[in-house]
Amino acid sequence: MSYKIVRAACTLLAALMMSVPVHAQEGARPMIIAHRGASGYLPEHTLEAKAMAYAMGADYIEQDVVLTRDDVPIVVHDIILDTVTNVTEVFPDRARPDGHFYAIDFTLAEIKRLKVHERIDPQTGQPAFPERFLLETVVDFRIPTLEEEIVMILGLNRSTGRAVGIYPELKEPAFHQREGKDIGPIVLELLARYGYARREDSVFVQCFDPDYLRYLRETLGTDLKLIQLISSSQATLVTPQGLDVVAEYADGIGPSLGLVLSFDGQGQPHYTGLIEQAHARGLVVHAYTARADALPANAQSFEHLLEAVFGGAGLDAVFTDHPDRAAAFLRARE
Ligand code: CA
């Protein structure tokens, strides 16, 4: 083949790759999103858990993002700190009247003094997942900034030659607004600084708040792929009319698994039809959360669950605490 032909083929290939639509492609391999990192194995949202998820073959790695008092986006699941850190020991007098310690009341320097441990149930103080990592704070796990995590993933992309994406969730934007902060512009600016600004970049921005996602698209004018998260209590979003509206501003939906399927007493999956309805509107479906140690009722095993969501339902991606087992499952299917 001549150089010219090769070059023309490469140009065509590049053009095709640029124009690949976000929505599900027939036969495309589903993607694995590491939910809070490899959180089934190490304390959630630590850089250690993210590096482990990367090495386990995740396609995307999730970041839950909240702001500090000094407006730094940090990666932590809750707007409160008491579920995953030793904040009650380090800053015993900094709780609000409701007894919780809010990240937004602490500067980054203060938050960096906290050690992260395995998630606890704040009511009982017991581990949320009894089989997971230790509760002790002997190991020096810390809350990362979003910037630290992005740079780590970009560094790993360079050193491994892979192209793992990021998947930030803006946590409770209405709470941030009541506290006088707008989380969206701060996060979008940081993403843009690290090269995440165009539709084809390897990032999905997710949020439960439909008004805020629309604001990101229409007022802030972001081009990034947007995912409307949908909990089981947001039933109006999964009606045909609700999905029509979501398709106006989002690229996909992130429903809880229970909105996609359930298993009967014999372990047979029953599908709600949500995935077909979303696909018919050009929306991808990335459902949460597949956990090997917290299966849906009547699912016989983690792999049984994955077979149902990827095989039967045609899910485009799954958030999972166990990216190694999801990756092994998809490899075995190929
Ligand atoms: Ca999340």
What does this structure look like?
- The two termini are 31 Å apart.
- The longest helix has 16 residues, at 3-18.
- The chain has 334 residues and is an alpha/beta fold.
- 41% of the residues are buried.
- The protein has helices at 3-18, 47-55, 87-90, 108-111, 146-160, 173-178, 183-193, 210-219, 240-249, 274-279, 302-312, 323-333, and strands at 31-34, 60-67, 73-75, 165-170, 204-207, 225-230, 252-255, 261-263, 269-271, 284-290, 317-320.
- The strands form two sheets. Strands 1, 2, 3, 4, 5, 6, 7, 10 and 11 form a nine-stranded mixed β-sheet that branches. Strands 8-9 form a two-stranded antiparallel sheet.
- Mean pLDDT is 93; it is low at 1-25.
- Helix 2 packs parallel to helix 5 (146-160).
- The protein has one domain (34-79, 144-333): Alpha-Beta Barrel (TIM Barrel).
- The protein has twelve helices and eleven strands.
- Calcium ion binds at residues 62, 64, 169.
Q: Which properties best describe this structure?
A:
334 residues; TIM Barrel; two-stranded antiparallel sheet; 9-stranded mixed β-sheet; disordered N terminus; binds calcium ion; alpha/beta; 34% helix
SSE order and pairing:
Layout: H1 3-18, E1 31-34, H2 47-55, E2 60-67, E3 73-75, H3 87-90, H4 108-111, H5 146-160, E4 165-170, H6 173-178, H7 183-193, E5 204-207, H8 210-219, E6 225-230, H9 240-249, E7 252-255, E8 261-263, E9 269-271, H10 274-279, E10 284-290, H11 302-312, E11 317-320, H12 323-333
Parallel strand pairs: 1-2, 1-11, 2-4, 5-6, 6-7, 7-10, 10-11
Antiparallel strand pairs: 2-3, 8-9
Calcium ion binds at residues 62, 64, 169.
